[in-house]
Each structure stands twice: as structure tokens, then as C-alpha cells.
Amino acid sequence: YGESFGIVVAEAMASGRPVVAAANAGYRTLLSSGEAAQFLAPPGDWSALAKALRRLVLDEDLRRRLGAWGREEALRYDCSTVAPRFAAIYRDALAARAAKCASVAKA
User: Fold this and answer.
1) b/e for 55-89, b at 16 or more Cβ within 10 A?
2) Count of alpha carbons within 13 Å of 46, Cβ hemisphere only?
């Protein structure tokens, strides 16, 4: 009911596999667009989960499309994409702190 991000979902997406998951907050973040959102079942709703799985089992083209989408979408969360953003945040924070310390020292 509450994984905050959904690393398991991101890993499945990166492997090129379609994902069926519970619609908790973390998983909704990853599977919120297009067809993928249709494969989020309300938490605890085993019938909806089975229905989504059955749909994938019976539709090879859908499996391929969702797999390709997931592989592409997972790149948004890859460390080579995310790490530079975090580094920029830290650089900005350090620069702001240095500027603040410099202004305090002048006063």
C-alpha cells in the first residue's frame, strides 16, 4: 500500500516488461501516462489485478507497446539522468551558502 517511489516498477520498466501494479502513490507516479495507467489496480482489488493481467496475456501487441514505453520511460529515472540534476542542486545550495556567508562577513 505505500512504497514511496516504486523502484521495483522502474526496474521492470527498464527491462522492457509491461507492468501491472497496485495503484499506490509511488507506483502511480511511474505509471501515470497513457496505456500504462490502465494497468494500475486499486490496492487489494484482486479482481482488477487479474483482469489487467488477463488483458496483457491475451494481447501480444499491447505487451510489446507497454514494454517499449516502459524501457524509454525508465530512462527518466536512470542514475545518468538523475545524478546530474542532484549535483546541480547541491552546487546551487553551496553557492547560495557561500554568498550568504560572504555577505555576513562584509557586515
Assistant:
1) ebeeeeebbeebbebbeebbeebeeeeeeeeeeee
2) 0
Cell numbers linked to 90: 547541491
Residue 5 DSSP one-character state: S
Which positions of the chain have pLDDT values less than 70? 1-2
C-alpha cell belonging to residue 23: 495503484
Spell out the residues 6+ positions from residue 9 whose beta carbon is closer than 8 angstroms to its own.
19, 21, 26, 27, 30, 31
Residue 36 and residue 69 in contact, taking contact as beta carbons nearer than 8 Å: yes
37-59 tens-digit pLDDT: 999 999 999 999 999 999 999 99
Question: Does the pTM of the predicted model rise above 0.85?
Answer: no
